[in-house]
Each structure stands twice: as C-alpha cells, then as structure tokens.
Amino acid sequence: MSRESRAEVRPLVLDHVTKTFAGRHEKVVAVDDVSLTIEPGASVALVGASGSGKSTIGGMVTGAARPTSGTVTYGDLAVHRLRAGGLRRYHHDVQMVFQDPYGALNPLHTVGYAVARPSRNFLGLSVHEADQRVRQLLEQVGLTPAAQFAPKLPHQLSGGQRQRVVIARALACDPGFIVADEPVSMLDVSLRAGVLRLLAELRESRGLSLLYITHDLLSARVVTDQILVLNEGRIVESGATKDVLQHPSDPYTVRLLDAIPNPFAA
Length: 266
What we know:
Layout: E1 12-22, E2 27-38, E3 43-47, H1 54-62, E4 69-74, E5 77-78, H2 84-93, E6 94-97, H3 111-123, H4 127-140, H5 146-149, H6 159-171, E7 177-181, H7 189-206, E8 209-214, H8 220-223, E9 226-231, E10 234-240, H9 241-246, H10 251-258
Parallel strand pairs: 3-8, 3-9, 6-7, 7-8
Antiparallel strand pairs: 1-2, 1-4, 4-5, 9-10
Helix pairs in contact: 3-4, 3-6, 4-6, 6-7
C-alpha cells in the first residue's frame, strides 16, 4: 500500500448552521444559526454550559452529525454532504479526542494496536513501520518507555495515561485538525493540567488546528488563542482568549466566570 501524506491544513467554516431534533411535542433547536471560521493553525475554544449545543457543533465538524440547514466546509470540501468513503478520507485530516478515556478504548485491544490501526488504515504503513510509529507517538505523548506501554491493556493504565493514548491514536494518521471534546472533564484535577499542556505543545509543534470544546473557561487559557461562547445554541461572545476572560462583555460569559472563585488568582 502506498503511504498517504497529510493534506494541506485548510480553514474550517460553519455558515449559518442550524441543528434541530424532534422533541415529544415540538422541535428542539440545539444549534441556532451559528457561523464560525477556524483558520489553519488556529486554536479555538467553544465554551458553554451543558446543553448549550457545543458537542452538537463538534459532531457536525467531524461529520458525525449533519446540519438541518447551513453548510460545513473544510477548504473546498462540503463536509455536510460526505458519505462513507468521503468521510473516511475526511477523517484522515480531521480527528477527534473524546471526553471519556475509559470508553474510548477497546478493553480487549492493546495500546499498541489502538495506535497502530489508524497508521495502517490511513497512511498505508507496513506492520514494522506502524510499530515504529507507535513507539514515536507514545514517546511524544509522554508514555515512556514506549516499549512498556505498547503491550498494556487499557485497564492497566490510569485515566491520564488512557487519555494520552487517545491523543496518540488521534495523531496516528497525521491529521491537520483536532476536535477535543471535553478531553479532561473526566480526569482528576491533578491530571488535567498535564493533558492540557500536552495538547498545547502538540498543537504548536505540529501546526495543528484545534477546536477545544469545554464548559471550563479557565482551561481554555492553556490551549487556545480564541474563544467562542455558546448559549442556547447561539454564539453570544467571541474574541481573543485573554480578552474574553479578563473583559467579558456578554452577561452569560460574566455568569460563567462568576461561578469560578478568583479566576485570575496567582
């Protein structure tokens, strides 16, 4: 099999996207006329409380969900129109880091298998080449020595270690864009900073675009340059991360920050 190279990183654009679901008595609007652009190499936080629509947007970005109206494009690729084969090619460029590191990994497969499989599927690597890539990626995400971690099963790892495996697996096909949906919310507080720093370092070193989905405004400081605040399916505030956190203009953003004691304490 021939090895594919990573395609040029492209802008991701949501243009007047709405997503509705059928409720018991009426339609439920999860995302309401959202437009946003993530330029190549940008790191953007999508912040909101539970039920604000942020994970629904993440699903539409990855192609797991389709908008009821509006368009999702990655460069000149119409993501909202992709079907099986097209989605597979799209996932060579756009990968997901899931919220739950416990449910994201097959308990019957080793760490090495989990990371090697996308390398072989998307890059066409041989078994030997994939094994080498597994070692490189595990080292890169801080699971060292890699030779000790590769044969382990998920239950033999801590939550933080599992999430690092999930990140390594997302990087295995050499994507240009990562969607990280609440990647630290299920980890102990002591582990969160390390995973966030890892995401920030990998984004910088690889030139990745990042959509970081979270309810935690403060964690966005570590990994993003821009913030979009989502309330009831609508973007109510946007701007540079530092500016939004220090000088919020929308009452909803203010309430989110007020719920956190001393957000800028040293």
